[in-house]
Automatic annotation (TrEMBL):
The lineage of its organism: Bacteria, Bacillati, Actinomycetota, Actinomycetes, Micromonosporales. The keyword Membrane applies. This is TIGR02611 family protein. The chain crosses the membrane at residues 84-105, 111-129, 152-172. Residues 34-50 have a biased composition (Basic and acidic residues).
Length: 193
């Protein structure tokens, strides 16, 4: 005769899977198995560390908040409902930030910065956004390094061109979106005074 075991029975209801521990071990991290105090932190204060080929533990180069965030994301992705919810949340949050950034591009301010921040939000979940963000980061860094190698005169010219570009974009934005022609008003003011 077959009997159903109780859901409280330890054999029928094994402990929940340690998703974060399995993921950390799969990546080569040595997970400390010491006892935790009541705050949930290890007593020894050790952080996870990578193990090199010789078996020597190496310190984790990532900041503690980044390790915690990636562990939390792995725990959320372990549940099918959590995975779908996370994807929807990341998609909506990234779309809002990118949309606001695109709307602010013509105006002086953090338009491009918000577009890149939105790509960073999407990069949490989408591989294409991660690649595009890496491409952007590489080109911004190479541009910055190139500009810093130039002489002061070239930097002044580049800054002037940037300021003229922002002024033209602001003038066109005011003229065609709000109907305010700053140049015509300035010419009229100069003619009357």
């Amino acid at each position: 005769m077959v009997t159903n075991r109780s859901s409280v029975d330890p054999i029928a209801a094994p402990r929940p899977p340690k998703v974060a521990v399995r993921a950390a071990k799969k990546r080569g991290y040595a997970v400390p198995m010491d006892q935790h105090d009541q705050t949930g932190r290890p007593d020894s204060g050790e952080r996870w560390s990578k193990v090199d080929a010789g078996g020597v533990a190496l310190a984790d180069p990532r900041p503690r908040w980044r390790t915690r965030a990636s562990t939390t994301l792995e725990l959320i992705r372990a549940n099918p409902t959590g995975r779908i919810t996370l994807k929807i949340f990341i998609t909506i949050a990234g779309a809002i930030v990118v949309t606001v950034g695109v709307a602010l591009i013509p105006l002086p301010g953090p338009g491009w910065l918000l577009v890149i921040a939105g790509l960073g939000i999407w990069a949490v979940e989408y591989h294409w956004a991660r690649r595009l963000l890496g491409f952007t980061r590489r080109h911004v860094q190479s541009w910055t390094q190139w500009v810093t190698r130039q002489t002061l005169g070239v930097r002044i010219v580049l800054g002037s061109v940037g300021l003229i570009f922002v002024a033209v974009v602001l003038w066109l934005s005011l003229k065609y979106s709000l109907g305010i022609d700053v140049i015509a008003r300035l010419m009229q003011y100069l003619a009357t005074h």
